[in-house]
Amino acid sequence: MPAADRSRFRHGRRSRPPKNFGSMKKLIVLGLVALTAFSCVSTKKFNSMKAEALRLEGELTASKSRLEDMGALNDKLTAEKMQLIADTTRLSNDLKECKKRYKQLLADGSAESARMLRELEDKEMALNDRVRRVAELEGMLKSREEAIDAIRRKVTDALTGFEGKGLSISIRNGNVYVSMDDKLLFRSGSFEIDPNGARAVRDLAEVLAQNADINVMVEGHTDDVPYRPNGQLKDNLDLSAKRATTVVRLLLENKGIDPNRIIAAGRGESLPVDPAKTSEARAKNRRTEIILTPKLDELMQLMEKQ
């Protein structure tokens, strides 16, 4: 051992720590602080997502009820129309029979003639009332069909460049459906909208802003492949609801659209268009549907009068 080292050893002196030891301590402390902050942010984000999921669940329940009511209304109107037509035919035949009997009784000059005349007048009034109601219902239903077809034409004109590229437009159950595949809107497992899909949504928003008599429901759909939970989403239902909300927010960037006209709903994997367990079927099922419905205020008022 060199003399200088032996001297230091004898006097109890230890070698000093490296010069960067203090810097290392600072880095460790900063790392612990960062981890704590990240945990807080993740917890806040999770709570926010959970609250939004509860809100979307409420909207989904309301939207399901509304669609069921619309379907029931359409069925009720059609059934009443058929019943009115049958009643009209029956009353028309009764009227003819009464006229025949009336003519036979006129020659008798009996009191029966007066009774038959009153009966004839009552039946004629009832028949006229039925005819009027049938005409009203037919007019309302025709107006609704024309409104739906007009919506389809306007949407088709606005989205011509996207048809056949992951977008389709159809009429189902008295509503116009704009269906967008995932390849147009979202990457797998993501709720961030693709720029090309965003253009299609904004073009549709222009049509909706110019037609305030259209109600809108945006439905998110997924395939049946289980979603791997992360800090933001739990399952396919969460993913579909988040995607529907993303589309609604993009539509509402157009200030000409009243937010009260739009509902977001997450359907998850519950409504597949193709139940097969193939990659082609699953690709069809991963979609976002924008359902457009003309307002039915006049039809609802007519139903309330019945």
UniProtKB/TrEMBL annotation:
Pfam families cross-referenced by the UniProt entry: OmpA
Regions of compositional bias (Basic residues) in chain numbering: 8-17
Keywords noted in UniProt: Coiled coil, Membrane
Listed SUPFAM superfamilies: Myosin rod fragments (SSF90257), OmpA-like (SSF103088)
Segments of this protein annotated with the region Disordered: 1-20
Domain OmpA-like: 173-296
Coiled coil: 117-154
Family annotation (InterPro entries): Bact_OuterMem_StrucFunc, OmpA-like, OmpA-like_sf
Protein name: OmpA family protein
